[in-house]
Amino acid sequence: MHDHWEHYEHGADIGVRGIAGSKAAAFEQAALALTAVITEPQGVAARETVQIRCEAPDDELLLADWLNALIYEMAVRRMLFGQFHVELDGTRLTAQAVGEPASVARHHPAVEVKGATYTTLRVAPVEGGWLAQTVVDV
Amino acid sequence: MDLNLLKQRDACAWEIPVQGRMRVPGMIYASQELVQTMDHKVYEQTVNVATLPGIVGAAYVMPDAHWGYGFPIGGVAAFDAEAGGVVSAGGVGFDVSCGVRCLLTGLRRADILAVQKLLADALFHRIPAGIGSTGAIRLNAERMDAMLSGGAKWAVEHGWGTSADLERVEEHGQMLHAKPKFVSEQAKRRQREEMGTLGSGNHYLEVQEVTAVYDEKIATVYGLQQGDIAVMIHCGSRGLGHQIGTEFLRSMVAAAPGHGLVLPDRELACAPIHSELGQEYLGAMRAAINCALANRQILTHLVREVFADVLPQARLPVLYDVSHNTCKQETHRVDGHERELYVHRKGATRAWGPGHPGLPAALREAGQPVLIGGSMGTGSYVLAGTQASESLAWSSACHGAGRAMSRNQAFKTWSGRAVIDQLAQRGILIRSPSPRGIAEEAPEAYKDVNAVVDAADSAGLARKVARLEPLICVKG
Q: Which residues of A touch B200 (CB under 8 A)?
């Protein structure tokens, strides 16, 4: 399976979806979809690495926690992330998010993400891999 | 939405009869055309809200409703704590106390046209807006807690505004019983540099002209006459409120089984009002309300500074400031008896009718100003609360136009530059750091605010007073 991300429709907001060969890679792709709500992920330079750890009762809450941890780090560090490396150990996540300070001139950020919701939240096996998705509030 | 699922009670009132686990009916206030264009998810979410413990009356839906998170956006629901009622983080939303403030200016259209570009540039330069923007105010831990307890009153005490402003702000500018100790350090850290910032998305600051007056008497009380200029500020509790929403949603999901709550949708996460978690959320959420009130107060001060430079003859008193994402403890009459209820308004505006003791004396006879935001190219409205709204929906009305098109679709359909140019041809100056954000917020991506407001008026939720159209819009 070709790892990829996509957006899907939700009335006022945006769904972020990662589809990949492994669950961890699907989480990475969902994170790229999150960045793409704000700016083009490939336009974010790899200058700083931020470590992130989460633990949750199940895969779906772990995905929401992961995306919310990224939203928090983007907000307090005023950064954008363009690369992600995720390792999963059961429902424990360890990750590196790589990016740079947000620049209005270079990134033309469209909108600030307030939080990852539990609307259409899903982590599930699909043919040849995994899907990880939810709607983010902007 | 399929009309066959509903019983029509009036031209603009549609009931969802009690079925399954519903404890009360649903009640949608909208024209037939608006109901037909509502997403079926609004129906599902209204049914789900009606199943929650302690709900009183009905699960109400405003004319601008659309698919939300657990609750529909445009949803109103009240719970009785003594009947096992709940408080829901999803029922308030991520942007706690997002709301609208309207400032009068005493200016006329010609005054603005003489300096329109200068004023637009000065506002854009002075008002921090968009991703990465920070305010000039930095709060240490002590000042943060003082702000979270004091709201707009705290801001005025620090020189951002006058005490006269507070009379025209909900809760007189200070939400009581806020508990900053239940606001996490993460939420406070997220807010540390965001006081006095506008945010992004559908938040805005507009200079508007009154282009129609529907009720001369109330408009005169409000200080709105045809051709007058007003300033509207739409924003909320910024990062602090977003973080509180995120954290308590998670906590309420985890705690639901322990509270014996069976949730039809995880996003409906809630906790009994009398539980420890319920009380912690109420304390934190009220602190976020104060954050939003302080933020709009500081933005008001910045706007006044700009006007003092560009149009020094202007005075900018507050007409009113009202939120549309809250849960508030209120007294309402139910079956002839007064009851204390916790009223959730998610994308719905409190709309007190004439004579309400909570209104400032100057507005009491006319009823509360209900501030309805439009989009960049369409009108906004000022309505007045009605006495009928108390029995219709706990004194509530709509809050805006509501989106008709997703952000993705809007971005694919329009370019930000073209939207800015088209609006400039109509005399509306847009200032924003984000062309993509402008495309996603294109006027045509929103529903017809006129139809929403007409439905609210017809249903009796609020009455139309004046329509305003933008001359300048600053967006994040």
A: 109-112, 138
Tell me the CATH number at B181.
3.90.1860.10
**Residue of chain B minimizing CA distance to A61:** B250
Q: Which residues pair with B318 in a beta bridge?
A: B103
Predicted structure pTM score = 0.96
| Domains (range + CATH), chain A | 4-137 (3.55.10.10)
Write down the ipTM of this complex. 0.94
For residue B358, count CB atoms less than 10 angstroms from its CB and return exposed for 0-12, middle for 13-18, buried for 19 or more: middle
Q: Show the domain range for B278.
A: 3-404+446-475
Side chain identity at B204, as an amino acid letter? Y
Partnered with residue A79 across adjacent β-strands are: A101
pLDDT (tens digit, 9 = 90+) per residue, B363-398? 999 999 999 998 887 899 999 999 999 999 999 999
* Long-range Cβ contact pairs of B251-260 (< 8 A, separation 24 or more): B251/B277, B251/B281, B252/B88, B252/B89, B252/B277, B252/B281, B253/A61, B253/A118, B254/A57
Residue pair B170/B198 in contact (Cβ under 8 Å)? The answer is no
- Domains contained in chain B, number: 1
Q: What is the pLDDT of residues B65-102, one digit of tens each?
A: 998 889 999 999 999 999 999 999 999 999 999 999 99
How far from chain centre, in Å, is Cα B133? 22
* H-assigned helices in B332-425: 361-364, 388-393, 407-413, 416-425
CB contacts of A108 in chain B (<8 Å) are 433-436
Tell whether B423 is covered by a domain.
Answer: no
The answer to whether residue B420 is domain-embedded is no
Considering the domain boundaries, does residue B415 fall inside one?
A: no
Residue B433 resides in a domain? no
